[in-house]
């Protein structure tokens, strides 16, 4: 599954190129709790089809009711919505918040753009497909759109005259090793909106690979990482347990801006890996601070699907800028368990 914003924009583009009337809704402000953050988008076609989300569903239902009724008014001589963008606000009163399924005190404001220009949408989706970060500015007076390359992700910006939302290319995940754990992690990454590439030079593992939607390559991991060119929207995870494969990939990944670099393995194996990289490849302790391991959050996982849940949770937390408490880090949690067990044994307990 592709990045949600990209999917919304591509679907909207297809509708417009097919001659359908449509609108683009963007969350521009929120007060209190809100189901979707500022910058979230959804698109709606004249027949009521919806892609994306700005709430838990109730606001989408209201927009369908309002604007597909208007689209259907053509036969009765009614005027279709069009022209300059408009703002709409939901959840101003407690009754409205309840009716639209917003949390207590939650209010959000949307910008509605009617019939976005297909040519501008085409240029935007092409830029995103090429891996570029793009700022899209909507002029409020007439809905005219300007696109500019951006150098870094940015929060949505509003002025008296315009609204600017920054769109990035898909998040990408490179997995080293095509084993069973990789199958579960790749599946979770795909439905979380990542574009997934799996690298394994071992034919016996590639032959059993069965996850549709993930790209499978057979080159050596270091070459694959170089060709992959990880950026700040990329993560690299080594899952083979084979130092000849994992270490090569990690060495290359640590020279990139990847937001997450990690390797599977026990505390002892991960410490041995760090020592190898310092002794044989000249990496410093400071350079290795970006290398995560043991990876995942501690949920007592034992099976491949549970371990994949643990790893995916940590990747998403890092992606979303959430600082995880030390108690859920695998190494720290297992270390605490070990100390407790040793104390119990000393005291004759357990």
Automatic annotation (TrEMBL):
Domain XdhC- CoxI residues, every copy: 15-70
Domain XdhC Rossmann: 173-315
Domain of life of the native organism: Bacteria
Protein name (Swiss-Prot/TrEMBL): XdhC family protein
């Amino acid at each position: 599954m592709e990045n949600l914003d990209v999917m919304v924009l591509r679907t909207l583009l297809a509708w417009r190129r097919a001659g359908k009337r449509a609108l683009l809704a963007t969350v521009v402000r929120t007060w209190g709790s809100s189901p979707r953050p500022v910058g979230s988008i959804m698109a709606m076609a004249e027949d009521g089809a919806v892609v994306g989300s700005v709430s838990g569903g109730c606001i989408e239902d209201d927009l369908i009711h309002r604007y597909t009724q208007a689209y259907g008014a053509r036969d009765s001589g009614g005027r279709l919505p069009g022209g300059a963008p408009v703002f709409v606000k939901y959840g101003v009163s407690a009754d409205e918040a309840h009716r639209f399924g917003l949390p207590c005190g939650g209010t959000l404001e949307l910008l509605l753009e009617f019939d976005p220009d297909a040519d501008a949408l085409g240029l935007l989706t092409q830029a995103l497909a090429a891996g570029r970060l793009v700022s899209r500015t909507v002029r409020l007076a007439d809905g005219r759109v300007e696109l500019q390359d951006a150098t870094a992700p940015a929060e949505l910006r509003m002025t008296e005259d315009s609204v600017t939302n920054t769109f990035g290319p898909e998040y990408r995940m490179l997995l080293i090793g095509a084993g069973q754990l990789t199958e579960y992690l790749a599946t979770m990454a795909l439905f979380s909106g990542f574009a997934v590439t799996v690298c394994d030079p071992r034919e016996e593992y590639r032959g059993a690979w069965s996850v549709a939607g993930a790209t499978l390559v057979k080159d050596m991991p270091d070459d694959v990482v170089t060709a992959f060119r990880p950026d700040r929207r990329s993560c690299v995870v080594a899952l083979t347990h084979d130092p000849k494969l994992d270490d090569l990939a990690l060495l290359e990944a640590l020279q990139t801006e990847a937001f997450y670099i990690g390797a599977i393995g026990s505390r002892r194996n991960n410490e041995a890996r760090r020592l190898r990289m310092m002794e044989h490849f000249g990496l410093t302790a400071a350079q290795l601070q970006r290398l995560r391991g043991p990876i995942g959050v501690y949920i007592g996982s034992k099976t491949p699907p549970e371990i994949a849940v643990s790893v995916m949770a940590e990747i998403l937390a890092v992606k979303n800028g959430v600082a995880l408490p030390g108690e859920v880090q695998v190494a720290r949690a297992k270390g605490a368990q070990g100390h407790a067990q040793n104390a119990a044994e000393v005291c004759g307990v357990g």
